Amino acid sequence: MPANYNGIWDIVDCKNFEGYMIALDIDMVTRKIANMLKPQKVIEQDGNFFTIKTLTTFRNYSCSFKIGEEFEEVTKGLDNRKCQTVVNWDNDKLACTQKGEKKDRGWTHWIEGDFLFLELQCEGQICKQTYRKTG
Ligand code: VL7
């Protein structure tokens, strides 16, 4: 039985989002706005099928995938790039690689009790986020 990510998760901590956004070439005005946001993750998991919604007052982003199946991801409203993306199980962690223009790009999710952790990586910058389950 893999881990169960279903639920609503609210951000409680965020480190180096700025470095991650600079690595993605996000302009300063957008970074200033983005740094104020308190994202919520709404995750729907049905076996190996996932939808992860990242919701904010400024922009929303949604990504649906099946574990192990590569797909073309367009990071619309984020850095607007195309990636060849795949998400795999690494034990109970969700490990994503996003191949494209940016090197060493991807993210990892894992759960510890009521907390959901996320590390977003791009070209040597790692943003570490913590979410708490609220629903
Ligand atoms: C992570 C944003 C910065 C542009 C707007 C800020 C809007 C929210 O990769 C992500 O989640 C994964 C793992 O949970 C699933 O898709 C989205 C958001 C990072 C990068 C780019 C700033 C402009 C923030 C929509």
From TrEMBL:
It holds the Pfam family Lipocalin. Residues 7-24 form the Cytosolic fatty-acid binding proteins domain. The keyword Transport applies. PROSITE patterns: FABP (PS00214). It comes from the Eukaryota. SUPFAM superfamilies: Lipocalins (SSF50814). The keyword Transport applies. One of its GO terms (molecular function) is lipid binding. Keywords: Transport. Belongs to the calycin superfamily. Fatty-acid binding protein (FABP) family. This is Cytosolic fatty-acid binding proteins domain-containing protein. It comes from Electrophorus voltai.
